[in-house]
Specification:
single chain, 261 residues, Cytidine Deaminase, domain 2, 5-stranded mixed β-sheet, 5 strands, extended
């Protein structure tokens, strides 16, 4: 038996946004009244005319027009991103991220099962069965069978199926780094999964993969090779320690302000 699955680690992107605000200010000038002590004579209030740019009505109309234009421009500028991940890239990345949980020193594999509504219903990675310590069994790829990892490791596809969070995975598709071996193919078929999306078929000529293709063809499971649109995905976490320190500083400053009131 040989392990036909291996993967690598994924990463993600991030982005920023900005906005504008429109400030409106109305100015009113009150005329002196007939009874004003500072008035030497009667001063009637100024009459408003259509051409009076300082009138309240025109001021509101101009501000309303400017506000509508600004809102329209802001809406246009805040359109949807165009560099988002495709579904296939997204689920493939989830499979690769899951692979980073594997303790296997030579081969890290992840699998992601998705239903017809594009909801993730199962994730898994290769490793020893539950209850078997990672340091109690061999991880070697060569040597007598019982001294290698092959009799003991559960492949990512199997773990993803067993870890499913729905009643069943019939009609779902599974994303993996490598074309499944024959043992995983049997589990995939028996679980009702109808599509396998893989990145590499490096073991195409092995007996295990030949058997997989034969069984997939007979059972009607579709196999599709995915070529990622993005060659590299970066996951960059924020500087949490810096943010925590800034929060503490803000709390201290607010406390000082409260004491000074």
């Amino acid at each position: 038996m040989s392990n036909c699955c291996e993967g690598c680690s994924p990463e993600s992107v991030k982005g920023k946004g900005s906005g504008n605000a429109l400030e409106r200010r109305d100015t009113f000038e009150r005329p002196l009244s007939r009874n004003s002590p500072s008035s030497g004579a009667f001063m009637p209030p100024a009459k408003k005319s259509k051409g009076n740019l300082g009138s309240e009505g025109d001021d509101k109309e101009n501000a309303s027009t400017s506000s509508s234009a600004a809102t329209s421009a802001a809406t246009s500028a805040a359109g949807p991103r165009s560099d988002y991940l495709s579904w296939d890239d997204y689920f493939t990345s989830v499979a690769f991220l899951s692979a980073m949980r594997s303790k296997d020193p030579s081969t890290q594999v992840g699998a992601c099962i998705v239903n017809s509504s594009n909801r993730i219903v199962g994730i898994g990675y290769n490793g020893f069965p539950a209850g078997c310590p990672d340091d109690a069994l061999p991880w070697s790829r060569v040597g007598p069978m019982l001294e290698t990892k092959y009799p003991y490791v559960c492949h990512a596809e199997v773990n993803a199926i067993l870890n499913k969070c729905s009643a069943d995975v019939r009609g779902a598709r599974i994303y993996v780094a490598l074309f499944p071996c024959n043992e995983c193919a049997k589990m995939i078929i028996q679980s009702g999964i109808k599509e396998v999306v893989y990145l590499s078929d490096k073991y195409h000529d092995s007996d295990q993969c030949k058997a997989s293709r034969k069984m997939f063809g007979m059972s009607g499971v579709k196999c599709r090779r995915h070529v990622p649109e993005k060659k590299r995905i970066v996951i960059e976490f924020p500087d949490v320690e810096k943010e925590v320190e800034e929060d503490r500083k803000r709390v201290r400053e607010e406390g000082v302000e409260e004491e000074g009131k």
